[in-house]
Amino acid sequence: MVTDQFAAWTRHFTAEAERRQRVGDPDWARGARAPEAVWRSLQKFQVGEDGDGANLIGKADAAGDADYAAAVRLFVAEEQNHARLLARLLAAGGRPTLATCWSDRAFVKLRRLLGLRTELLVLMVAELVAVAYYRVVRDGAADPLVSEVAGRILADERRHIPFHCRRLRASLDALPGRPPRVLTMAGWRLLMLGATGFVALDHGAALRRLGVRRARFIGEAMAGTGPVVAAVLGPSGPPPVPPTGRPPRVSGTAARRGPAAD
């Protein structure tokens, strides 16, 4: 049952919150150094992570599944923790947070255009872009603290994708037949391409300083769309479930790996 799956996700998010409490924060006192282009990029992503999630929570409540609504609240809490981590990282580097960013305002307006299905489709774009972005920062940053914070956020963003796939699959199953579902995901891929291209352009200077060309970033972000479409449109079977086990611990002194190695 759908609700059984989301009860499992609620337990998973709760366990992950407890694990974060045990592990604690990175050592902010050591400070952080990064090229100015990277700081400007992180400031913009911090704005994107920051928000109360009220619109998504309201739509989740209206969907009528209490377990899903509870899981969404825990998901929003994780995203708010990302904003907190990035704000503390910026402070460690002597940089302020931004009050707002026009690209984030446009993204939020797009998410809120229609119902829960549209919100999740746009949110899935953000998750895949974030996975590609934080992987680049983790592997390309010379500073241990910058790399550690990016690695922590990356681990969370990767876990969020199957969560959203589960709800999107149920939502698209309500459409009349397979053709509308296929067309919806084809349109989603075009949206993903446009959004990824915009991020590559807007953050191009930071990507270069982190050792990744724009075209490579776009290609690796788009590579994540295949598994999402397969999970959402694939034949009936076991739906995406919460990941098991403890996420790998990321250390700022870990060996650098290129994004293609993940």
Please tally the β strands and state the result: 0
Principal-axis shape equals: globular
| % residues in beta strands | under 5%
Terminal-residue CA separation: 32 Å
Mean pLDDT: 86
Q: Which structural class matches the secondary elements?
A: mainly alpha
Helix content: over 70%
Model regions low in confidence, pLDDT < 50 over at least 5 residues: 245-262
Description:
Helices cover 71% and strands 0% of the residues. The longest helix has 30 residues. Helix 3 packs antiparallel against helix 4 and helix 8 runs antiparallel to helix 10. With 262 residues, it is mainly alpha-helical. The protein starts with a helix and ends in a 29-residue tail after the last helix. It contains 11 helices and no strands.
Summarize the structure.
The protein has helices at 2-23, 36-49, 54-62, 66-92, 102-111, 116-140, 144-173, 178-202, 204-209, 214-223, 225-233. With 262 residues, the chain is mainly α. The two termini are 32 Å apart.
What secondary-structure arrangement, pairings included, does this model have?
Elements: H1 2-23, H2 36-49, H3 54-62, H4 66-92, H5 102-111, H6 116-140, H7 144-173, H8 178-202, H9 204-209, H10 214-223, H11 225-233
Keywords:
262 residues; disordered C terminus
